[in-house]
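[recover] target loaded
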């Protein structure tokens, strides 16, 4: 009988601890979670590939072309890290290049879009980091311009290695 009381008390204590723990870590309730299917992309950061989503953009034509949300408010946000996109000819396998990633001091899911263009006669190489981009620009074979577009592209998985 005594072992039954100890067992019931132990179960009750464990249930109470679980309930308190769940309440402590639950925080504000956003509602029931649902799964959706959405395209994910890969981009480079410091030589490795990260996976990201593209959800919102400050350009109405870009929003229509990419089938994502248009948000005029995004265009007013300044001081964001850059996402580099190559326009025109590019090396096979070229992806977007991020200027930051989760865990970095200046990471943000919002990005200032910078367009890269290889100069005529230049032989494109795969660009994998902002440091590499700056070095290639100094050689005079690559140009960049601010697209004056802000993208909401949260990185959802940080890759490892090269």
């Amino acid at each position: 009988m005594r072992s039954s009381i100890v067992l019931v008390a132990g179960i009750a204590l464990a249930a109470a601890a679980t309930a308190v723990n769940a309440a402590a870590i639950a925080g504000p309730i956003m509602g029931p979670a649902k799964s959706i299917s959405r395209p994910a992309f890969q981009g480079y950061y410091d030589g490795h590939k990260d996976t990201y989503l593209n959800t919102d953009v400050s350009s109405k034509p870009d929003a229509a072309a990419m089938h994502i949300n248009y948000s005029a408010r995004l265009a007013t946000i300044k001081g964001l890290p850059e996402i580099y996109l190559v326009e025109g000819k590019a090396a096979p396998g070229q992806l977007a290049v991020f200027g930051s990633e989760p865990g970095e001091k200046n990471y943000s899911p919002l990005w200032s879009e910078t367009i890269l263009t290889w100069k005529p006669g230049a032989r494109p190489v795969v660009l994998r980091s902002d440091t590499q981009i700056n070095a290639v620009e100094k050689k005079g074979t690559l140009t960049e311009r601010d697209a004056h577009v802000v993208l909401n592209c949260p990185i959802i998985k940080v890759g490892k290695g090269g």
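[recover] notes: The chain has three helices and nine strands.
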